[in-house]
Amino acid sequence: MKNIKDYNIDELKQELIKLGEKPYRAEQIFKWIYQENVESFDEMTNLSLDLREKLKQNYSLCIYKILKKQVASDGTIKYLFDVLDGNAIETVLMKYHHGYSLCVSSQIGCRMGCKFCASTGIAFVRNLSSGEIVEQLLAVQRDEKIKISNVVFMGIGEPLDNYDNVVNAIRIINNQKGINIGARHISISTSGVVPKIYRLAEENIQCTLSISLHATTDEKRSSMMPINNKYNIKELITACKDYIEKTNRRISFEYALAKENNDNLEDAKRLVKLIKGMLCHVNLIPINKIENGKYDKSSNENILKFRDYLNEHGIVATVRRELGSDIDAACGQLRRKNLT
Ligand code: SAH
């Protein structure tokens, strides 16, 4: 059965026409799904019994089961969801003073193979569909009885390796009759799939783009992130400049600091040279050591020196506050989990 949450509003209108129904019903259905967050078609009481029956016969509502829920000492919550085919994914809810932010997964596993990331080393299974991405928000909103205000595609997977489904999910999340989260409150993080960055610039979505840069020479970046062998730093930065020019949106560069690897002043100097003058800021992430990982967290002293050097040389840089590290919910700690 098809997952009704895979359709954006225009596609759902087409589906209703196929069922011999009026297209405006799509708006009513959207409201039930995304604003009322119902768990069955029977609850859609302004639709005729006949239409509810047709919907039941043709579509599923893809309601996730919570396999595990862990709450960190700082209030961060990590969910393990059963995506209904025997696979499981992780999603993390973070509470900030300005609201709730949800870190969603876009794939079951990941193909990028970044050496410092816990999602690496576990077989890639498949892409998540748009509905499966969107259901992460709905399941958390139902469970915690809250309204999420920010979404970051920083969970398991490379969002631009699942481009169509991720962009469609954003359209549903962003739609006023859908979850209604402003595009500026939605961030996509990418390891640097250059052709897809050019494509995203043409989509007319005002979402924020984060680039996982992490190094300033091709040699170092390739040793940390195999994708750099395919699209090197120069090509990546050129694509970022195109993105900024076309969208007028500030790019966020992510830089995970690992001791004696990419955290000395020479790296900071090269970073300034690389991105100076671009509409951007730098998010410094103290790297989280993963099981059997070869990278260790930089010292606090080095992290602050690195940040200060950037700030003193005209680059806005902040150190990301780590949330949920005691439940393995911080950056790069998410993994695909089997149900067994
Ligand atoms: N695939 C996407 C999104 C996933 S991860 C991407 O690569 O951008 C979100 C961020 O956490 C990325 O910047 C990623 O490089 C970073 N990250 C991964 N593992 C990490 C770790 N062990 N410590 C700190 N940051 C990590």
Describe what you observe in this structure.
With 340 residues, the protein is an alpha/beta fold. The chain folds into two domains: 59 residues, Orthogonal Bundle (DNA polymerase, domain 1); 275 residues, Aldolase class I (TIM Barrel, Alpha-Beta Barrel), CATH 3.20.20. 33% of the residues lie in helices and 19% in strands. The chain is built from ten helices and 14 strands. The strands form three sheets. It has a ten-stranded mixed sheet with strand order 3-4-5-6-9-10-11-12-13-14. A two-stranded parallel ribbon has the order 1-2. It has a two-stranded antiparallel sheet with strand order 7-8. Strand 3 and strand 4 form a beta hairpin. Helix 6 packs parallel to helix 8. The mean pLDDT is 95. The structure holds S-adenosyl-L-homocysteine. S-adenosyl-L-homocysteine binds next to strand 10 and strand 12.
